[in-house]
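tool=predict chain=A
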Amino acid sequence: MKKIFFVLTIFTFQMISAQDTSKVDIAYAKNLSMVLGVSYSNLTFESKPYFLDSAGTIGKSDFKNAAGLSVGVSYNFYLGNHFILRPSVEANFMSPEILYDTEIEHKISSSVFPVAIETPLALVFSPTGYDQLDLTRRLPEIMCGIRPVFALAAFADLRPELKTKDLNIDFGLGYPMKVKKVTMRFELFYSYGLKNLIGVNEEDFRTTSISLINRSYSGFRVLIN
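tool=predict ok
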């Protein structure tokens, strides 16, 4: 994780030095934005062919993806004419499920990170440049970044045992539009989870029956300022 932060920092400073460092003076260059988004999970899931539950009954596990919502705030730091560094804080509500099918406890389920606080840091590139006042002539913006994720334990299921922190890499394409005095950025994105979230608990069949869970998701968001 430290290496990723270091590489992103070096990349950012290189981009700043290559750009016109004059102050960006644009009518729509407001900094604080509200973030509203919809998403759909894309879990990577691997499990054993079967497991024995606490009663010695053979069962199997599977998963089901789910839609979600996110709300938050972000702040735009304009780096010259072509780049924005955008830190955000978001609450993500999304409940993909792990399903367990046994003869005694038929089809029980557990949610994966149903409520999470996410703190993405994105670097946004505009090929057109932010001195272009006519938004209808702007080319799509390109976004990449890192997204630390923190699951809220109060809303998480106790089984299977999952790690409470994750780190995602974000990619996206965005486009700004002006509606009266409000600027809106529409953004399609994909967030790829780097960590295997399954924990270790040899006494719990819900944990031991699963070897891999990666929490990735895609979606659409609007940034309003």
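Confidence is low (pLDDT under 50) at residues 4-28. The longest strand covers residues 165-179.
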